Amino acid sequence: MENSFRKCVICERPAFSHNYGVLSCDACKMFFRRVVTLNRDYKCKKDGLCTLKEKTTTCKGCRYKLCQDSGMTFQPNFMDLKDNDQKMDVTNVLGVLLFLDARRSKQMKTQFTDENFSLVQVLENRRMKLKTRRSQILTNHDWSFFGIYTSIEFFMSLDFMADEHLQTRDKVILYNRNGVTVKTFQEILLTSFCVKASLFASAMRAVKEKRDKLMTVDGKDVYPDEILKFKQFSLEFLKRIRSLLVAKMIELRLTIEEFVLCNVILFCNPALLITGAAQDVISRQQNIYTSALLEYCNLVYGKNGPSRFTDLLSLFHVINKNFEDVQAMTVIFKLCSPQTIYRRIVTDVI
User: What domains, with CATH codes, occur in the chain?
Assistant: First the structure.
């Protein structure tokens, strides 16, 4: 009877299947995986002059080279890196964020709400009731509203947002006819960033769908050409709003892990808060997310990790610039088209 196994091309032990592209035994498969995921850099102490037995048993440098020379390839995703126990905290942080982002993304693609609550009502646990979207056609204003609302839901699902210090009310000077208003720190954080978060998420969706500009979930321009009928807007300005952030993310080849971490780092801005207790909560959380991003970069990019981390921070300026353009366009559009009715939550944050 023919043997059910052949020889591993690396160590010549019995092999029953192909692993990472080559016929190999389980021992060589696990060795190669560990070297890649733990980012080890083994060197032969005999300058490659080891015997065959040494190469496949005692010399890790030679064994790894044999794996490479045989054609083994393995590109780990970040969750593969959890084999290193020291990185489990980073994996846990990412696991929560990726789950919440996947839920937000699914809501954008499959659901909607006809309810019209203010931001304050939403924060008082009057979450809007979502329904399955079937044949309903949404306008650009609907998409804008729902992107903002699902971003708010994302942030409100983070554990630290339930901290009592963030539910404290404080006086914040607003430059409008109301003069002074009273807001919770939750409101301050969400008002400052939920629109930016919605833009960032839309740009990430564009990257994943291999598009070069912001578009709605159903494939329409987020900011259509009809806007150009108002002389205050130029085609160049419109193109910048549509493509500036997406182009930067494509240039960086942003991963979903980097996206979710950058998103919460930007959200946790302690400079927005006045009292020490609330600042401490947000500052501590921002440090956790920043450390997780740096750890991720070091694990995935090795010696290039610090420079990758710095490159990712350059996104923050682009997001802010994109938001400033959108904010300016919204103000002008409201003046040019006063009959347009906006959802209450949109009016609260723009």
Answer: 6-75 (3.30.50.10), 79-349 (1.10.565.10)
